[in-house]
Amino acid sequence: MKNRTQGPRYRKAYPCLWRNRQFLTLDDVGRMLAVYVLFGPQSNRCGILRLSIGMAAEDLNLSIETLAKRLPDVATTFGWKWDETDRVIFIPSWWRWNPPENPKVLLGCLNDLAEVPAGPLLTEFSGNTQYLSTNLHETFRQTLSKRFGNMSDISISISISNSIPPRKKNAGRINATTKKNPAVDYVEGAIGSLCRR
């Protein structure tokens, strides 16, 4: 798989966002965060992504605490789903605004799921065909089935991962002066990896 930090990636940006009622209810930080989730370097082509607050804070030059507090508000405002445990955000209306042109393009979009951990939002995503063209439904289902097996397998892995005790907050951290905050987590792997707690 190509390193997603290399080369240009493009997203369609709709000018109607700037006049969207939900968008207008947000302050400048909320708007910047919404735009970051939709179009930033951690976004992907299928509208369910792992999001690192640490990386977002660095990219937006804001504090981790501010972003951790604001992200759930932004998600609620737009009807997005946020899973703090898996650090995954799901945008159910993604296909409405970013419809794949054909089955081959959809397959390319679904390749981005390799970066998303199995969890409740991935299970919910597996039924997200409302805005997909009907000629893409079968490709969508078959691809998810090939990649993850029966979607009930995802539910099984969720219950197994939920039975594993969580790691200690500062385990593996070198800097002992790091504030103890549930929203703070280390950025896994290279700075380009997608993660969020």
Give an overview in words.
By secondary structure, the protein is mainly α. The chain is built from nine helices and three strands; from the N terminus they run ααβααββααααα. The protein has a three-stranded antiparallel beta sheet with strand order 1-3-2. Strand 2 (81-83) and strand 3 form a beta hairpin. Helix 2 (28-39) crosses helix 4, helix 3 crosses helix 4 (64-78) and helix 6 runs parallel beside helix 8. The radius of gyration is 17 Å and the shape is globular.
Give the ordered list of helices and strands: HHEHHEEHHHHH
**Uncertain spans:** 153-197
Q: Strand portion, in percent? A: under 5%
Strand order of the largest sheet: 1-3-2
The SS-based structural class is mainly alpha
Rounded radius of gyration (Å): 17 Å
**Helix proportion of residues, in percent?**
40-55%
- Outline: globular
Q: End-to-end distance, in Å?
A: 25 Å
Count of helical segments?
9
Strand segment count: 3
Query: Major sheet: size, sense and barrel closure?
Result: 3 strands, antiparallel
Compute the average pLDDT: 77
Structural key phrases:
single chain; 197 residues; mainly alpha; 3-stranded antiparallel sheet; 9 helices; 3 strands; 42% helix; globular
Chain-wise SSE layout:
Blueprint: H1 21-25, H2 28-39, E1 48-50, H3 53-60, H4 64-78, E2 81-83, E3 88-90, H5 94-97, H6 103-110, H7 120-125, H8 137-148, H9 151-163
Antiparallel strand pairs: 1-3, 2-3
Helix pairs in contact: 2-4, 3-4, 6-8
